[in-house]
């Protein structure tokens, strides 16, 4: 693919987050791509899951009681309904998340369309703004999501073009992608963050909607593809799913044969809860909290297999 063809390629992006220190080495810009093959019950990015643009409504910011009607006038599909008590409701059957109109008309950011079509060049111009920070901190670009490699062509073009601009690259992946896409991406990646959520396929499927065979198979192939490339395997520690020494030791034993793999566990958090409400969805794990005292025990369990290859989440 030529440099010009890469720059023009377009994909659906739902966020660009600058100055992150959690998703790869150094200071990074995270580009979040829409769409995910999994539907994890704990997902902190519910706005990432669908492959199409999606409208979020934050009633707390809405000025409907001050008689604002801008979005009602802007929507050509009649998908915004004003109720008798002046509150607004989105008719999700009518709304197609069209990229302009209501969100652009809203004066208070009460409406946001997640998923904007953007070109590689447009995205990387934003990423390049912080090139000086990347150089000083060994940081760079991280593709995340959703599952960023689900938009395979776009993700590959982003990675290739970032490398042409001498920007270091990383990806956060759930691994549920065709091997050919992962293999092709690997050539342009300096660092990979790869989730291993559970070793039992049935339990994995019950809480993520997908079995884990392809994820584990891809992981093995990736770890062997370039033994000099570090992979950070990560597990979100989820109450009632994998917050036991048994579950973590099973994952650690799977990782143990690959010396280029490091390991980190992420304690369950509920930072995404509000976004479910903005999308008119019920958070599947609303009432659940993690007893944080479990983390030191799980870190010890992982260390009993992987030693100092276990990192403690920042
Ligand atoms: C938003 S995901 C994007 C990458 C990819 N979809 C995945 O899950 O691997 C980035 C990281 O956040 C973790 N994560 C998602 N929801 C979480 C939650 N509620 N608590 C802790 N970690 C979470 C994921 O497991 C993953 O390691
Ligand atoms: S996103 Fe488009 S279809 Fe949906 S409510 Fe807004 S203007 Fe109407
Ligand atoms: S345009 Fe924004 S502030 Fe005005 S009624 Fe619609 S959502 Fe509320
Ligand atoms: S794989 Fe990641 S983005 Fe996809 S549903 Fe699970 S946590 Fe969310």
TrEMBL record:
Its cofactor is [4Fe-4S] cluster. Pfam families: Fer4_12, Radical_SAM. Residues 86-117 form the 4Fe-4S ferredoxin-type domain. PROSITE patterns: 4FE4S_FER_2, RADICAL_ACTIVATING, RADICAL_SAM. Residues 22-309 form the Radical SAM core domain. The keyword Lyase applies. PANTHER family: PYRUVATE FORMATE-LYASE 2-ACTIVATING ENZYME, PYRUVATE FORMATE-LYASE-ACTIVATING ENZYME. Belongs to the organic radical-activating enzymes family. Monomer. This is Pyruvate formate lyase activating enzyme.
């Amino acid at each position: 693919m030529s440099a010009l063809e890469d720059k023009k390629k377009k994909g659906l992006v739902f966020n660009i987050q600058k100055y992150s220190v959690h998703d790869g080495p150094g200071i990074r810009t995270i580009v979040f791509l829409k769409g995910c093959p999994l539907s994890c019950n704990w997902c902190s990015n519910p706005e990432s899951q669908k492959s199409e643009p999606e409208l979020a409504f934050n009633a707390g910011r809405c000025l409907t009681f001050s008689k604002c009607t801008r979005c009602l006038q802007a929507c050509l599909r009649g998908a915004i309904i004003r109720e008798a008590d002046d509150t607004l409701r989105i008719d999700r059957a009518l709304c197609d998340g069209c990229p302009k109109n209501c969100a652009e008309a809203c004066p208070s950011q009460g409406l946001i369309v997640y998923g904007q079509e953007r070109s590689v060049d447009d995205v990387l111009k934003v990423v390049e703004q912080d090139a000086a920070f990347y150089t000083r901190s060994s940081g760079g670009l991280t593709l995340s999501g959703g599952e960023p490699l689900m938009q395979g062509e776009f993700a590959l073009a982003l990675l290739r073009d970032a490398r042409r601009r001498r920007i270091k690259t990383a990806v956060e992946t759930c691994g549920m992608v065709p091997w050919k896409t992962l293999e092709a991406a690997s050539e342009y990646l300096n660092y990979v963050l790869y989730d291993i959520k559970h070793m039992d396929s049935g339990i994995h499927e019950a809480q993520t909607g997908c079995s884990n065979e392809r994820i584990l198979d891809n992981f093995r192939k990736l770890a062997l593809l370039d033994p000099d490339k570090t992979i950070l395997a990560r597990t979100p520690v989820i109450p009632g799913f994998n917050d036991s020494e048994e579950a973590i030791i099973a994952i650690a034993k799977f990782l143990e044969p690959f010396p280029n793999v490091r390991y980190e566990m992420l304690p369950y958090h509920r930072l995404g809860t509000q976004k479910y409400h903005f999308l008119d969805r019920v958070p599947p794990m609303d009432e659940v909290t993690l007893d944080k005292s479990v983390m030191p025990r799980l870190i010890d369990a992982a260390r009993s297999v992987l030693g100092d290859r276990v990192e403690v989440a920042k």
